[in-house]
Amino acid sequence: MTHLAANGGSPIRLQQWPAWPAPAPSALNALNEVLHSGRWAISGPYQGKQSFERRFAEAFAAYHEIAHCVPTASGTASLMVALEACGVGAGDEVIIPGLTWVANASTVAGVNAVPVPVDVDPLTLCLDPAAVERAITPRTAAIVVVHLYSAVADLDALTAIAKRHDVALIEDCAQAHGARFRGRRVGTFGAFGTFSMQHSKVLTSGEGGAVITGDGALSRRAEHLRADGRTYTAHEPAVGEMELDQTAELMGSNRCLSEFQAAVLLGQLELLDEQNERRRANAALLDDGLGALGIRPQVSSPGTTERTYYEWAGRIEDDEIGQLGVGPIASAVAAELSGAGIYTSYPPMNHNRLYRPASRSRFKAVAGLDLTGYSLPVAEDAGRRVVTVHHSALLGDESDAKDIVRAFEKVFTHHRELRG
User: Fold this and answer.
1) pTM for this one?
2) Count of other CB atoms within 10 angstroms of residue 353
């Protein structure tokens, strides 16, 4: 007899999940304003009023209680801007987590430096400070810490290591918009906090990004790096004139956010805290319900005062179920839930099929880019055992969380069907 929906049985749920992305009520008016403004990008001529890009930058900096925000075209762009603004370049090493999205490695290679993946803590799945300490060499120029899924990394230990070795600490907050550590928003502890506003993120405009910093000199470098070596003029220009000044201080690239994206983000930011609170409430229900089924929830580092749930994550502890591999389990649970966002963890960086620098001629002469020789046992275990639930499934009510638990329970009960 077939029980699982993946094998033709009846699913737990046919009802659809909350749509994501979901536009703020102000989005249409804001986009219409941009459409008829005569200025669709900061590289367009000034039209007599503050750009949406500057409005969003001010709002995002104020949200983080920090002095500077420079919007960018993507999270990848924000990482590259932060690395180069900190002086990272050819021959430098950059420590990254062994469990993260591929961009953390490819951006380091993209600024002609060498990524050095180190293992993660088995409970938080974020950088293991002891592993970071062991990986420091005279060539280390920066540490990129990722606040992964729903956890904040151990910022006490990592900031101390960066200070002791005089290397830049860059916080990748692509999955942590709004999280707090010791009462402060993440992204405000390192030289830079970097953010992605890609489609799946809790704050999104489809694509987009930003860097934040408390250092005015670093912010000015970031402005030049993302706008072809230009920065905002010191004084308001006349209508029809350019608002970007060709200072020739620093060569850059075009990594700018469009006015349409900035307009969307300005409205989405107003919803972020309330949405994050709803996600936290439903995540607590998953902690209890899935924890009782033998899935160990990801925890955040001591000192975390507010979590952001980009994805709820947990490790399947049962060996018999775990031996199936997390892929078939995630697919089977998603089938029970009308295609809810149930996923596997990222693959470990030493086996990430998207990281292939040898496939591009610009990297063929650079030594040290092959990561397959690194030992990352905790990250490798996570790739086999960790399952995640996308935050869009946490925007519903208590009954939605219970459906997720029921789906996992059904798949675990009938897991032997997956072996066939």
Assistant:
1) 0.96
2) 7
